[in-house]
Write a structure and sequence with these properties.
single chain; 45% helix; Rossmann fold; binds fe (ii) ion; Dehydroquinate synthase-like, alpha domain; 17 helices; alpha/beta
Length: 424
């Protein structure tokens, strides 16, 4: 029967090998994938911890050559992505292994894309900022090994990048960018400072909450062709399963993981939650808090985050996302009241009697306080007169705003950002 509405959703996931000590299998996995000369992508901070070097030795033990690249930038820019892509081309590699956070994994995704199908990075960037060119065929094998528990980038089709000249963040998204295999090893997160665990964990919570509270896939118009089906499809029954579990784990384990870095059980569950939320939002998608996070991270570069390397000021991704979440979910409440209530209960790890539009914002504010998150947009270096620029930047993320559960107008974003200047 013909319908103007979408009737189909798709569910794809990266094969994941999970568990303490799993990173020892890196060489075995790359050999299985037929890789002979691999580019190892990491960032200087992670490299200094020695894990990438250890993993490189394991890979070499399988007879695979390793070309070491430790210049992935925390919060990659179009230029840093291009640098990694040029390096991959010069070194003629036939596979990739990323060891680090979302920045390293995303840099490897783009280096893989550009070295397989050479073109200026901008051609692949999502419209309207870039041209949205689609890769013509699959890419080289990419083994992703996360060392933080946040982005879930190992499970997604997206690479996020900063365009400093236009003060905007955007991304490249296509199913071919999804890593071929992931190894998620909780042992690798032990050395994370509490601030990093807080930011990445709150990012996990937002991925799952935004996905669970996105516009149902069947509310979108039916695409002209399968090629036009967006990577972010809106909530659907399978994505919901992953998002729900990630919220439950986030509510139960994030506080513990921040309070005690050696709490291996809590760290393990947060890592699992990050990957599970990645599977959920890789299918459903994220919307208002992530739309606002982009300009919060790129309009001003004045915030020097505690616990992170001090070579350049920036707003850690998870903290840039969480600050507008209470107001965003206050705004979306009336579109899906029962679902907001469910999210609040999962995060609170207990039933909430007498649900109201403020239940979820209240639970989020308490969680933020408990894991020492910044109190709002103002704490990240912004004043009232920056609000128009932030609203402008968030409005540019139409690809994300399109899957919010209700229409988001400029005035709504102004209200959300204003209310988020200080959450307490
Ligand atoms: Fe995120």
């Amino acid at each position: 029967m013909a319908s103007e509405h979408e009737t189909i959703f798709t569910m794809e996931a990266t094969p994941v090998k999970f568990g303490t000590g799993a990173s020892a299998d890196a060489g075995w996995e790359l050999a299985r994938l037929g890789v002979k000369r691999v580019m190892l992508v990491t960032d200087p901070r992670v490299a200094a911890l020695g894990q990438p070097e250890r993993i490189a030795r394991l890979i070499e033990a399988e007879g695979i050559e390793v070309v070491f690249y430790d210049r992935a930038r925390v919060e990659p820019t179009i230029d840093s992505m291009q640098d990694a892509a040029d390096f991959a081309l010069e070194n003629d590699v036939d596979g990739f292994v990323s060891v680090g956070g979302g920045s390293s994994m995303d840099t490897a995704k783009v280096a893989n894309l550009i070295s397989t199908h050479p073109a200026p990075v901008m051609e692949y960037v999502n419209p309207p900022i870039g041209e949205g060119k689609k890769p013509p065929s699959t890419l080289k094998p990419h083994l992703a090994i996360p060392t933080t528990s946040g982005t879930g980038s190992e499970a997604t089709t997206v690479a996020v990048l900063d365009l400093p000249d236009s003060k905007v963040k955007s991304g490249i998204s296509h199913r071919y960018l999804r890593p071929t295999q992931a190894i998620v090893d909780p042992d690798l997160t032990r050395s994370l400072p509490a601030e990093v665990t807080s930011s990445t964990g709150l990012d996990v919570v937002c991925h799952a909450a935004e996905s669970f509270l996105s516009k149902p896939f069947g509310a979108r118009p039916r695409p002209e062709s399968p090629d036009d089906r967006p990577p972010y499809q809106g909530s659907n029954p399978i994505a919901d399963v992953w998002s729900a579990k990630a919220l439950e784990f986030g509510g139960r384990y994030l506080r513990r993981a921040v309070a005690d870095g050696e709490d291996v059980e809590a760290r393990g569950f947060m890592m699992l939650a990050a990957t599970m939320a990645g599977v959920g939002f890789g299918s459903a998608g994220v919307h208002i808090p992530h739309s606002c996070a982009y300009p919060i991270a790129s309009v001003k570069h004045s915030y020097q985050p505690p616990g992170y390397p001090d070579d350049h000021p920036f707003v850690p991704h998870g903290h840039s996302v969480i600050v507008t979440a209470p107001a965003a979910f206050r705004f979306t409440y009336d579109a899906l009241p029962e679902r907001h209530h469910q999210v609040a209960e999962w995060l609170a790890s207990e039933p909430i009697g007498d649900p109201s539009p403020d239940s979820l914002p209240d639970v989020l504010r308490q969680l933020m306080k408990d894991v020492q998150a910044p109190s709002g947009v103002a704490a990240l270096g912004y004043a009232e007169d920056d609000i128009p620029a932030l609203v402008d930047g968030a409005m540019k993320q139409q690809r994300l705003l399109a899957i919010a559960p209700k229409e988001v107008r400029e005035d709504d974003l102004r209200h959300i950002i204003t209310a988020s200047m200080a959450n307490w």
